[in-house]
Amino acid sequence: MFEPYTVGMVKLNKIYTRSGDDGTTGLGTGDRVRKADPRVVAYGSVDETNAFVAMCACCIPTDSKRGGRLGEALTAIQHDLFDVGADLCIPIAEGEDQSGMLRITAEQTAWVESVIDEYNADLQPLTSFVLPGGSVLAAQLHVARTVCRRAERDVSVLLEIEPDSTSMETMRYLNRLSDLLFVLARCANQEQLGGPGGDVVWVPGKNRSRIQDSE
After folding, report:
1. 68 in a domain, yes or no?
2. What's the CATH code of the domain at 145?
3. Contact at 8 Å (CB) between 43 and 173?
4. The dihedral sign for the CA sequence 48, 49, 50, 52
């Protein structure tokens, strides 16, 4: 997935190498680890999040008023997620030269926060939890959100195991991103399902009376 490289240099000259047939894979340092290694699991989940973000971009309606801006934001997120994956696949070395390494930055996390503020400004305050669903785009954004949450949990495990060699900023970025995907899902339903009432809200115990009546 991620090969050893320095900033601005990526070279993929072979798609299959057979080197992973024994259940191992190479980190960005070239070291071989098991494919179930927590570090590999973490950046694998980030890669999966990226793929689902791409699905969201493909589901933006052509007549969406904010579709162009949303598409640009999702593309920017995809680039950031590759940065997160590249960060995770190269453990932080003691005394490393940060200028030559591709590490996720606080500025990238702050940008996600700014996009949250931009889209959340038009939303009504929530009075209940919302169900994943509504429009196709909103449903896809919720899927991406839940996968992103899993990636965040996987990075959390890695931080517990290897705190000194793992960037805390990777988890901060994923935490903000999952919040953004939630906000974007609400915006998608607001635009496509009709104003502030576009949320598909959870009704606690909605089906309990139906079940009791059938007994």
Report:
1. yes
2. 1.20.1200.10
3. no
4. positive
pLDDT digits (tens, 9 = 90+) for 89-114: 999 888 776 667 789 999 999 999 99
Residue pair 81/49 in contact (Cβ under 8 Å)? The answer is yes
Instruction: Return the residue matching tokens 């590999």.
Output: 40
Q: Assign 4 to helix, strand or coil.
A: coil
> pLDDT tens-digit profile of 36-64?
889 999 999 999 999 999 999 999 998 88
Q: Which residues of 62-99 are buried (b: 16+ CB within 10 A; e: fewer)?
A: eebebeeebeebbeebbebbbbbbbbbbbbbeeeeeee
String of DSSP letters for 14-78 = -S--STTTTSEEE-TTS-EEETTSHHHHHHHHHHHHHHHHHHHHHTS-TT-TTHHHHHHHHHHHH
